Predict the structure.
Amino acid sequence: MTEPDILINFIKNVPKTELHIHIEGALEPELMLKLASKNNLKLKYASPEEIRKAYRFKNLQSFLDIYYQGTRTLITEEDFYTLTLNYIQRAVRDNVIHAEIFFDPQAHISRGVKFDTVLNGIYEALRDGRNIFGFSGELIMCFLRDQPEDEAMRVLDMAISYTDTIKGVGLDSAERNNPPSKFSRVFEKAREHGFLTVAHAGEEGPPEYVKEAVELLKIIRIDHGIRAVENEKLLQSLGRIKIPFTLCPLSNLKLNVVRDLRDYPIRKIMSAGVLATVNSDDPAYFGGYVNENFLALHGALNLTPAEILTLAKNSVLASFMDAERMSMWIEKIEDIYRHTFLSS
Ligand code: HPA
Ligand code: ZN
């Protein structure tokens, strides 16, 4: 095998986690059509190809408009189960061993789908994923930041009886003009009830939103965070606390957050001390799962074996898995690295 092939195989085979995946964003066009037909819903599109052709996004909002249309096909517990189990099967092929999965209850409750229907379907699939593949999954419930605070408070109240099922809460949807401060009280209450907290910040919103998310919402991991690079002082302060960023290269490219992956600032982020991770965001919409994100980044930036090792280890270190599993996976990753690159 040539050296580049060895590196590409290492990217594909190294165990990794995924920490930024919206389960509704893993709805592949084939399943969307199947569910639409089963649930007697009319879609604008007749084939997976037609659907994929419509996935040309100008910005975050133009994506969200289509994404929320797609979520309408998810109605029964079984729909959420199938969606989630399909994601797990696909992630396992990328050697993803653990995922912390976002879900958007408000996108479903607003259409009359019950909170329990969503949660039970997803949770059953996580249980089967563990039994069938040894895959571990955690759930992070997201609040839609373009909806009112009191609505977020209401879904938080629903989640409070499920603290054994839902590990954390997050903040997603349209970021512009919806600063983290809008949800200070919601996040404070979530923390009081033991939920871990993350938030999308600095995807389309300014660096100040990243600062607010950390200081006001007291989040322990930042989703995206990429626009923090525009403020050197902020980036350095985030590096000092070694906070993780869940970066999503293909998403950022497709939503015009970055123009070209060759300019992707991951090295700048890593050298500041931030724990950078690579994730897929909405893989069915942005053209790839975790390994495709790694490979696209590698194609653009020519990542070194040591950088890939760091990113794989970061994905474990930035996760919410327990300390014992964490050190087991770190050892495994280092072993595979040594066998691949240092053994002859
Ligand atoms: N950004 C913000 N909100 C979202 C996204 C995203 O990429 N996907 C689903 N909700
Ligand atoms: Zn996201």
Notes: Residues 20, 22, 172, 200, 223, 281 surround zinc ion (ligand 2) (CB under 6 Å). The first helix runs from residue 3 to 13. The longest strand covers residues 136-144. The mean pLDDT is 98.
